[in-house]
Amino acid sequence: MYRLILISFAMVLFGALDAWGAVPVPNLKPGTEIASPSVRAPGARYFQAEIPYPVLKPAGSSLQHQKPVIVIDPGHGGTDPGAIGVRGTHEKTITTKAANELANRLRKSGRYKVILTRTDDSYVDHDDRLRIARKGQADLFISIHADSAGKSAKGATVYTLADRAKGRQKRIVNNQNWILDVDLSAQSDPVGDILVDLATRKTESQSDAFAEILLNELSGKVDLIGNSHRRAGYYVLLAPDVPAILLELGYLSNSEDERRLQTKAYRDKITSSVERAIDIYMSQR
Ligand SMILES: [Zn+2]
Known about the structure:
This protein is of the alpha/beta class. The chain has a single domain, classed as Zn-dependent exopeptidases (Aminopeptidase, 3-Layer(aba) Sandwich), CATH 3.40.630.40. It is built from seven helices and six strands. It has helices at residues 2-19, 91-109, 126-135, 166-175, 190-218, 255-261, 264-284, and strands at 69-74, 113-116, 140-147, 156-161, 224-232, 244-251. A six-stranded mixed sheet has the order 2-1-3-6-4-5, sandwiched between helices. Helix 2 links the parallel strand 1 (69-74) and strand 2 (113-116). Helix 2 (91-109) crosses helix 7 and helix 5 (190-218) packs across helix 7. The protein is globular, with a radius of gyration of 20 Å. Bound molecules: zinc ion. Zinc ion is lined by residues 75-76, 82, 91, 145.
């Protein structure tokens, strides 16, 4: 078993380096699935056969001739209303509107393939939201929410994945057989640690880069909360190979934020800033 782990690790490391362009490998094009049958030794079972996703595929490396894929995730929905505003506005109503408006804007530009995790008032669980992102080979995942806190807190916040969520990320990767047919659940397993690190390092820096670009675009156009780039362990940010942010549009617990988030004009300020941020991010990555 140990040999199998080492062989698997070597295969994945080699493949990952190839896909990142660090090592030229004959017969392997960038973005090639490492787990494809053509590179798997006869009889060896390095990965679960049913894994439908590229393995350790660096984020943002979808086929060059395709448009970048943006997955937009309206928070909550259906039986889960999310936060309730001071005047009774449901978070899910605001997130559905903002997400659909952003999707329309991006589709109209013709520059992106846009996938929504939901378009109507339906409940989609967190696993499915992540599956949609990974199956769609998302270049960017944007989860849209509206916050709730004390009355005085107002303005937008952008979240990326916190370091303290790494253990959870590793467990999910393992439980869902996202990367390897090895047990990554043991925290002390150095092979597992290295594998997940490999898979996540580039994703993290891309997520952070997009968060900073987005905050720069939002700044001056809409209110931002102090310390507006925050980190949290939100489940929808856990995919190891999809750069992801969670955008809190504002605070429904603040009457001014609640009122303006109900207006399309204010949401347009936000969605146009998100579109510009995506344009900049895609031109720089
Ligand atoms: Zn929410």
